[in-house]
Amino acid sequence: MENTIFDCYKFDKLEIYPDKYISLINAIDENYSIYKLGIYKSNLSEGIFIHARIDISIPTNGVYRQLDIHSKEDIMIYAKTNYPWTAPSVLFVRNDFPTSQIPHLNLGVSDSKIKMLNPCLYRGNIDEWFYLNGPKVFCDRVNEWFFDLVNGNLIKEDGFEVLRNENSKGIVEVDYEYLFDKILGYNRDYGAILLQAKENNERYFKVLNYEYTNNLSENIIPCIFIFDKKSVVSEYSNHNFNKEFDLNRYPCERRLKFGIEKLRRIIGKTSKLNQIKEILVILAVKRPMQVIGNFSEYEYLSVIMVYDFNSKNCLSNYPIERLSVIQSINSDTLERLSKTQEIDKKTIVMLGCGALGSKISMHLARMGYTKQHLYDNDLFLPHNLARHSIVSNSLVGYPKAFIIAEQIKSLVSSNECRGYYEDIFNIKKLSDGIVVDCTASKRSLYWSVSSGVINFPMVRTEIYFGGKVGLTLIEGKKRNPDVHDIMISLYMMALENNIISQWLNYQDFEDSIYNIGFGCSSDTMILDDSTISNHASIVPHLINKRDKFKNGMACLSYFDNESLNKNSTYLYEIESMKVFQNVDGWSIRIRQSLYEKIVNYTKENLENAGLWMGRIEKSINRITIIDTFIPKDNIRNIDTVTVGKEEVELYLKKVSKKTNGLIEYIGEWHTHISGTALPSQRDLNTFNEVKKNTSVFLMTIMSPLEVNNIVINGDE
Questions:
Q1: Which of 47, 69, 309, 687 has its C-alpha lying 20 to 30 A from 579's C-alpha?
Q2: For residue 658, what are the CA distances in angstroms to 469, 496, 504?
Q3: Sorting pLDDT into bands at 50, 70 and 90, what band is 590?
Q4: Are 257 and 245 in contact (CB under 8 A)?
């Protein structure tokens, strides 16, 4: 056959072939419009080539755009040796098939010597699709493709297909969003804007988001960005770019000469003009619908033009080379790829840029949280390479906060990220945002709730229990509950939760310097990188959902690499606290529902009393009440109550054991069912006795009229 694939490649007819191809051959024989003509092997690639003829129903008004498509076309259905694990490919038999005007074509057959254009039958993984659907559906899809071809329906409603890059001589990276904003912001329908471009590698150009000036370094070349807001190009034509003349089919090209004149005026001096040998040109071609891979109706085409400013040659005769255009990563793209574009992204204030903090920071950046302020007073040292997000040995010795900030800046070419080589305890004020404390520091926990530096809800995350427990605390609105309240609440959960109890009682004697219940330093913990990554991966999702939490939230991720089937994630909602400020110099915080429960006892006919359970933190003058125990043998009267002893000792031992002493008996409460909450003489006598035996003790009196907290300092 002349002027066909048979002229290009050697085909030998097959009489015998492997049985695995029979299903495909039978499907072709059974198809209503595909007729088998012969079976071949070839020097192209191993496998079989099924020569077939397909009947194409030509529309009554002719083929779309008068393409040279016949009612009967010969095709080759090529099946590789790994069939059916790999889908067959369809090749055009005649060499003059009008591929330059046809979208939805593949640039050759993967893993073969076949470089011919061939129909793209499925948008997605064709091999997976074929294995699930089989050869009969495949043949039907071939018919559908040719039907769509002659009717002009290859470009579907899901977007305009970009031109193929078969003739590309390089790559140019551009920020689609930046270019689109330039188009929208231009005050005329046609435009030519001069931008900067940098050749990062041989024939790899990056368009910078800056306009061109006459005072630039030698590695910067001019980029002429041209566009037409009105004219729409609906035809698909994948032609070669050889001369500037080839660009004339796009209406925006008429602005190119204006761009060159702009460039000439900006540079001004002939000596500078002589240094410019190449000009990068980008055309924004307006399509009738959103372009696939973009988020607007503009398709960006690019060429590199060899241009001589001193030549009098016609512009149309200058040689050009086609470049492939790819999208730069920016915040908007990251958001779309991560499906986080609808989330309000406040500034991330990262406290601690160690193993855990660095991973969370980079996870957030890749989700669109590119505006970050990072604080850490530590240097990146060799042992950090074991589990830090930074893996470059060349960065050892630099501040961790600077390194992470530069990584984020390079990710999105943004200056919104800042690193501070600074001790967090020197911070005077933080701007509004989302504070994420990854310091694993007890001091930091106390500082965050007592210094007054942080005035908006924060997040605290760290790893405990030898790496088995990852804990993330998210404060409620107006920082109530705060991270300290949430932590104390978790301690109390140890009475019913074995994982929490095991964590609180865990002691790693090789790392004995760490305080039980407040985590451990990720800098020296013996722990693998993947475990840290597992815990870190949860935190960004919690930050995304922070506004949906009515109260505070604690997330406990359990990961045991020795028993992977036990791994799980737990979410606990933590209620707000009733707060009494400056009570004898102390802050007293009571779980809201617990407070309401005790207040209700003032409505009864007899007085009642119970034990306060919680923690007393002398370093920040805070008393946190998380629960109460009311003995069953309380002696209740109208005007007095005597606290019983039944099961008290047993209960206190249980709490101490389950929480490793982190929840304690810290005081008592009783009610006055009439009058005020002022202490009676009996109460005063009791206070004096208590004062002899304790350093700090809380006595609370509740009446229908008021609540009176008395902090007894026994050491004063």
A1: 687
A2: 17, 9, 8
A3: very high
A4: no
What's the order of all strands across the beta sheet hosting 89-92? 11-13, 34-42, 48-55, 72-79, 89-92
| E strands present in 381-481 | 418-420, 434-437, 458-464, 469-474
Rg over CA atoms, the chain: 37
Render pLDDT for 692-709 as a digit per residue (tens, 0 to 9): 778 899 999 999 999 999
- How far apart, in whole angstroms, are the C-alpha atoms of residue 510 and residue 502? 18
Residue 50 resides in a domain? yes
pLDDT of 512 strictly over 70: no
The pTM assigned to this predicted structure is: 0.81
Quick: pLDDT tens for 101-129: 899 999 889 888 888 899 999 988 999 99
What is the rounded average pLDDT for all residues in the chain?
90
pLDDT value of residue 2: 74
CA atoms within 13 A on the CB side of 567: 14
d(CA 471, CA 487): 10
CA atoms 574, 579, 584, 586: torsion sign: positive
Residue 686: both structure tokens together = 């009791």
| Beta bridge partners of residue 635, listed in sequence order | 642
Residue with tokens 């003349």: 245
* The residue type at 259: G
Pair 14, 113 in one domain: yes
Q: Which token pair is 484?
A: 């300290």
Residue range of the domain that includes 114:
5-151
pLDDT at position 665: 95
Q: What CATH number does residue 515 fall under? A: 3.40.50.720
Q: Are strands 72-79 and 220-228 parallel, antiparallel or unpaired?
A: unpaired
CA atoms of 568 and 556, how far apart (whole Å)? 8
- Residue 667 CA to residue 83 CA, distance in Å, equals 77
- Between CA 83 and CA 251 the distance in angstroms is 46
Structure tokens that stand for 15 in this block:
């009489």
Q: Are 439 and 424 in contact (CB under 8 A)?
A: yes
Helix H or strand E encompassing 1: none
Which residues are 284's β-sheet partners? 227, 300
CB atoms within 10 A of CB 81: 13
Tally of structural domains, the chain: 4
Q: Give the length of the chain.
A: 716
Is 435:455 a contact under the CB 8 Å cutoff? no
Return the DSSP state at 617.
E
- Are 458 and 434 in contact, with CB atoms under 8 Å apart? yes
Mark whether 230 and 296 lie in a shared domain: yes
Q: Which of 245-249, 433-437, 594-598, 608-612 has the lowest mean pLDDT?
A: 245-249
Q: How far apart are alpha carbons 173 and 324 in whole angstroms?
A: 8
